[in-house]
Every structure is written in C-alpha cells, then in structure tokens.
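Structure (tokenized):
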C-alpha cells in the first residue's frame, strides 16, 4: 500500500513539474507606434508567430541538449558521492545506485523547471523577428 501511495505522489509531482515546464517566458513589447496601431491582440499573434518561427528554425534545440548533459553530469556526481557514502557503511554499490538515482532525478527536475527560460539564440531570434515587424521588445517575463 505504501508503494502505491508513493507512486501516486511521484506521479503528481512529475505532473506538476511538467506543467511548470510548459509555462514559458515571452517577450515584453514597448507600446510604440506599431504596437498602438495594431493593438494588443494582433501584437500577441505576432509574438506567437515569431516564437513559432524560432522554434521551427531550430533556435531552441540547444536547450534539450543542455538538460540532457546536465542530467548526465548530475547522475555521475550523485553516483560518486553515493559510492563514497555507501563505502562508509559497507555498501558502496547500493550507495552509488542511490546517489545516481537521486542526482540524476534532481538535475532532470531542475532542468525541466528551468526550461521555461529560452536560450539566448532563441531570444535573439524572436526579438529580431519582432523588430522586423516594427515592434520594440524590451525584455522577457
């Protein structure tokens, strides 16, 4: 029964993390003449178009690779730390396995939570697209 409860809790946590990772930052537009002439709804549609163009061009593909590399690094660090801790209690193999699982999971979750921040290439791409349309992006939130 405890394993089932733990499994449900883990699934809820994972679902929360996944939902959080879907909420991404968007550019903030200064209300210049272009913004005022087209209005908020058209400006938002233009932002979505520029983000879609950046995504389809591959400007955000580096982010997934960064998360994968960081997760591998976190797993290795966790395994090393776990092996040392486990050796103190006569179980280096189990310690390494537990450390790898903990380090990898923690790093992956952090990467997913942090993934709402687009990489610099993606930001520059979207900002350039918006400037080409006459807008003045002033930051991201």
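Design, position by position:
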């Amino acid at each position: 029964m405890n394993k089932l409860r733990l499994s449900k809790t883990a699934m809820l946590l994972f679902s929360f993390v996944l939902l959080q990772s879907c909420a991404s930052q968007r550019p903030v537009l200064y209300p210049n003449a272009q913004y005022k002439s087209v209005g908020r709804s058209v400006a938002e549609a233009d932002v979505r178009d520029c983000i879609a163009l950046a995504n389809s061009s591959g400007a955000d593909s580096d982010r997934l690779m960064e998360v994968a590399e960081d997760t591998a690094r976190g797993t290795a660090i966790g395994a090393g730390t776990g092996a040392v801790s486990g050796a103190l209690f006569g179980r280096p193999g189990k310690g390494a396995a537990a450390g790898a699982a903990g380090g990898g999971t923690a790093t992956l979750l952090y990467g997913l939570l942090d993934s709402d921040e687009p990489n610099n290439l993606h930001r520059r791409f979207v900002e350039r697209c918006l400037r080409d349309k006459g807008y003045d992006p002033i930051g991201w939130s």
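Reviewer-requested clarification: Residues 62-117 form one domain. The CA atoms of residues 19 and 39 lie 30 Å apart.
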